[in-house]
Amino acid sequence: MSRVALITGGxxxxxxxxxxxxxxAGWIVVLxxxxxxxxxxxxxxxxxxxxxFLDVADTGSFPAFVDGIGADHGRVxxxxxxxxxxxxxxxxxxxxxAWDHTLxxxxxxxxxxxxxxxxxxxxxxxxxxxxxxxxxxxxxxxxAYAASKAGxxxxxxxxxxxxxxxxxxxxxxxxxxVPTRFARQRGDAAVVAEFAEQVRRxxxxxxxxxxxxxxxxxxxxxxxxxxxxTGEVLHVCGGTQLPAFPRRAVPA
Length: 252
Ligand SMILES: NC(=O)c1ccc[n+]([C@@H]2O[C@H](COP(=O)([O-])OP(=O)(O)OC[C@H]3O[C@@H](n4cnc5c(N)ncnc54)[C@H](O)[C@@H]3O)[C@@H](O)[C@H]2O)c1
Known about the structure:
The chain is built from eight helices and seven strands. By secondary structure, it is of the alpha/beta class.
């Protein structure tokens, strides 16, 4: 019986790429997104996948939502939390609404979705959770966003310990800048292009991260090849997480 993965933010670029990677590895994939149309459109290109509406800020809907997937497919093995928001702000213009919304989508959502998935992990005798974090947990960004992604690392490590006895592995993938629709929150096309070029120029591996790079890391972490890996943060950022960043000259 194929294993089943629920991917939030599945209508987005990283979520959809992750859906393609997991489907290629034999998983049944449910792409869930606030933008249900985008999730359904992404699922159309993936054999055996489907798109569903989910608002990860609406915690009350989680148990019925996850149970619905379990009822339809017989199991829920992997939860990949890729839904995210990054409303731009500085400390000076930070308001309560932006703070709360960032934290409820990026941090509270994954915690309570994992809680709703727990009965299905118990039933299956194990499973896997992958949270899509961000390199900003180390390097900083808009304060609420960086705080939410740093919090996600704390959540990942805590749940890795709490759920290990159930055979559930919990990891995070932390990308640097990926040129997706997400970047549009930063400003207009010229601002985004300038930022992207700056990241590319200063990246030790010399190119930008793609959604497929992130998806490949997730596909590995949910696979049996990662059976002894839990509580990790896998940086997918071309070396920009290293203290030696920016790049050193190659020795002659
Ligand atoms: N793009 C980057 O530079 C980058 C870098 C590091 C980490 N990330 C993280 O990767 C994840 C995916 O980002 P992406 O680049 O694919 O962006 P994206 O904008 O393409 O996808 C994000 C998706 O999340 C969905 N979403 C937003 N709020 C939601 C809610 N309340 N309920 C359900 N879905 C909701 C959006 O509709 C969108 O489809 C995010 O968690 C983001 O923080 C992105």
